[in-house]
Each structure stands twice: as C-alpha cells, then as structure tokens.
Amino acid sequence: MNMSLVVLIVGLGLAFRISLGVWGASIMRNKGRPESFGWLFGIVLGVIGIAICSFWPRNATHPRQKDSGPLAWGKNTILTLAAVLLVPIWNVRWIALPPLAGITVMAMLVGAVLAAPREIIEGEVQRIMYIHVPVAVLQYLAFGITAFGSAVYLIRRDMRWDAIARGAATVGVMLTAFALLTGAIWGKPTWGVYWTWDARLTTTLILFLIYSGYLLARAVGGPNDEQAARYAAVVGLIGYLDVPLIHFSVDWWRTLHPQRIIFDSKPSLPGEMLLVLLLSFIGILFLMLWLTLLRGTTEYLVQRADRLRARLDQLERS
Amino acid sequence: MSPTATLLRKDLRLAWRDRSGWLSALAFATISILVYSFAFDLAAADIRPLLPGVLWTTFLFSGIFASSQSFQRESESGTFDAMLVAPVSPSAIYVGKLLSNLISLLLVELAMLILATILFDTPLLTGELVLVVFVGTVGYVSLATLLSILGNRTRTRAVLFPVLVLPLLVPLLIAAVQATGGALGQPLDSAPWLLLLVVFALWSSVGGALLFPVVAER
Fold first, then answer.
1. So what's the pLDDT on residue A48?
2. What is the 3-state secondary structure (H, E, C) of chain A?
3. Which chain A residue has the Cα nearest residue B204?
4. Where in the sequence is the domain holding A52, given as residue range(s)?
5. Given this model, what pLDDT does residue A33 score?
6. Do A234 and B211 touch (CB under 8 A)?
7. What is the tally of structural domains in chain A?
8. How far is B176 from chain A, CA to nearest CA, in Å?
9. What is the pLDDT of residue A87?
10. ipTM of model
C-alpha cells in the first residue's frame, strides 16, 4: 500500500479529530465539569510524595538500609514515572481521551483496511482480526475494572465506585458482544461455522451472560439503591473470580471433542500486520477507557441528580 | 449449642412441619426426569452417554428452584431482621442455611438416583458417583444460597435468579457431568474433573461465607 496515502489520510483524520476534541472539551468547560474525583488526586499526590521522599538526599552519615540498590532505584523510577504520567493524563482526561481514541481508531481502520498486506490463505476477511483481537482481549480489562470497582465499593461503601463498576460493565458487555459478532463473521468463511465450542469463545459467551446478569441485578434498584449496588457488586466480583474456573473447565471439556481447527499453531505475524495490530490495541484501549469514563461519570451524575431530586421532594413537603 | 446448629435445627424443623418446600422440589425433579425420558426416548437406546446430563440438569434446576426461596419465609415474617440483630455472625446464618438447603437437596438427589436406577436399569448408587454428586451439590448450593438473598426484595426474582446463577455454574456443570460420566464407565479423558469440582465447592462456600455478611446487611 502506498504509505504516503496512508500518512495523508491519517493526518487529515488527526486534524479533524483534534479540532472536534478541542471543541467538545470547550463545551465541557463552559457547562462546568462534574465534581472532580478528589480522592484520585489524593492517591496521585501520595504517589508523588513517595517518589519525592525516596529521591530526597539523605543525611550522609545516616546509613541507608532498604532504599538502596538497583531494585529500590527501579521502584522509585516506576513510581515517579507513574506520578509524572498519571497526573497530567487524569487532569486532561476529557480533552485528551476523545482525540487520542479518535486518532488511533481512525489510524487502526486505515491500517487494517488499506495498509496491512492481504493475507494469502484467508483473504480479505482476515482484516477483521485487527478489531476482533483487541476487543476480545480488552474485555477482560473492562470486567477487571468492574470487579475492582465492586471490591472497593464493598470495602469503602462509596457509591462512586459503584458508578465506575457499572460503567465498566456496560462497556465490557458491549465489547464481548462485539467480539462474538466479529468472531462469527470471521468464522463462517474461515472455519465454515459461525460458532465452535472453543475455550476462548465459550468463556467470552459466559462472561457476556454473567455481566448482563450483573447489569440486570444492578438495574433492579434505583441509582442510589445501596442494597442493589451491594448485591450487584457481589455478582461482579465473583463473576470475575469465576473466569479461571470457566476457562479450565471449557478447555478440558473441549479436548474430548474432535477438533476441526487447530487453534494452537498460530502463524507468526509479519511485521506490518503486527504494527497494525499494535496500533489497534492502543486505539481500542483508548476508546474503552474513554467510554468507561463517560459511562461511569454519567452513572455518577445520575446518582447525584437522583439525590437532589429526593432532597427537593423533601423540601417541598416540609 | 452453636448458632449454626441452632439455625440448622430451626430450618430442618420448619422444613418438616411445612412439607410443601422440599416436596415440591421432589415432585419437580421427578417430573423433569420423566420429561427427559419422554423427550429423549431414554428407554430405547443405550442411555449411558445421556444419563449424566439428564441427572445434572435435573439436580441444578430443582436445586435452583428450591434454594431460590430459601430466605423467603424469613423476610416475609420478619425473622431475617431479627437474626441480623441477634449477636450472631452473619456467616453463621449463611452456614446454617447452606447446611439445611444441602440436606434437603441431597435427600431429593438420593431419591432421584434411586428412581433413575429403577427407570434406566443402571446401577447409580456407587461410591464414586455418590461422592461426585455430594461435592457438586456443595458447590452449587453454596453459590445459590448466597445469591438467593436477592429474593428478599425483588419482584423480578423468579426470572433474575436463574439468569444470575446459571452462567456462574457452567464450570461446575461441565465438571460434574464429565465426572459422572467417568463414574458410569464412560471413556474419560485425563482431565481432573473431581479436583475441579472440589475446587469449585471450596471456592463457592468460602466466597459465600465471606460475602454473605455484605449482601445480608440492611
């Protein structure tokens, strides 16, 4: 594929998306942004504090005990890098994430459709891999966020974590549905069947069912219903802990049946394909994070609106 | 006497006085085995490949049917709040309820094994098979008991409860069916199905005892 054309299209998309992102961010700013997640700033400031403390020159006469050696140096570097990277990213999340997601997803599409070489055996349908594989992998990250948010909610009882868990579960269910759909579209011409009881396929399907159940259980109560939130959080947590069991059982179960396709012998990808795949991983990651943030913030705002409405009713009655 | 044993005795006594709960589970299980034998024509061919699936779907559905109402009486009569107020650890309440559900379901399953032995002319009451049934039942009853507390308040519980529980029980179902097939003399692959059942039972009972206090509180 002509690389200059790719660069041109990606550049145009970039310019378009940045302008759109800046425009959207300015709207956000004018409307006033939602109450910021102060606790996260606290964590980040704590990380900075740790980093500063560990780099601060100590009294030379005082013997250094644990904070020396290459291991401590590496730890401090990682902490400082995290602090340096996390604070700006979190501060500009509404401005940075939409254009980042837009640029990378657009580059992913261009790369998958135009730039990547045509696969000899499977033909054009192989290009669906560039979106299918990242989506299928990153669903575990989305459900991991749900499980983590559920666990923190159960410990801290802060409804904001419930909002995060619910937002991530919505995005994760969307990703699993998308992975199943693209997998079926790819599977029919390649394997001859839409569906096969492979371990990965089955695990994805069961995850889709479990977290649809999570969303249903959470939707039983209102936005501020703590009992429904607790119950759903338990489902979100044990659903994720169930994943290794599901994977092992389906994996062993499948070995009983005759296999039409050999999944394990994966041909190593040529460099260009690998590059496009990497690009699409980054793109879907940004998209997933942005959507999760958007859904989580929406859930949080719905909770606040519901509380305000309840208070208003109370005031009107009294 | 420990609180768990007291609660277990209370539940068993109530189950004995009001026999509708476990009798309907028993009737449900019997009818579903009969429905399977009509649907798959189980009398005709060699039924051994089908039998583990028939048994375990019957066990799972009647277990979910029975345990979905395990806290209904408490929440209707207000006993549940009283139990929570009492100086007893909620985990003890959970274990008591789990044991009473387990006992009634094991009895139902024993009856089903005897019935299937008679109907299908296959010896089912072997030691290995009883072990598999016991471990599998511990696994699914502990998870179903934990999640059945949803029934305390929701109108949609009748639909929502199986929808929530069954996907979580997929690994147990696969392992239990395979292990039962192995116990019935089916050609078995080398996968450690009984170990998976034991891990699932431990996982769900420990998780249930740890998480029950969280879902139970008001």
1. 60
2. CCHHHHHHHHHHHHHHHHHHHHHHHHHHHHHCCCCCCHHHHHHHHHHHHHHHHHHCCCCCCCCCCCCCHHHHHHHHHHHHHHHHHHHHHHHCHHHHHHHHHHHHHHHHHHHHHHHCCCECCCEHHHHHHHHHHHHHHHHHHHHHHHHHHHHHHHHHCCHHHHHHHHHHHHHHHHHHHHHHHHHHHHHHHHHCCCCCCCHHHHHHHHHHHHHHHHHHHHHCCCCCCHHHHHHHHHHHHHHHHCHHHHHHHHHHHHCCCCCCCCCCCCCCCCHHHHHHHHHHHHHHHHHHHHHHHHHHHHHHHHHHHHHHHHHHHHHHHC
3. A238
4. 3-317
5. 42
6. yes
7. 1
8. 10
9. 67
10. 0.90
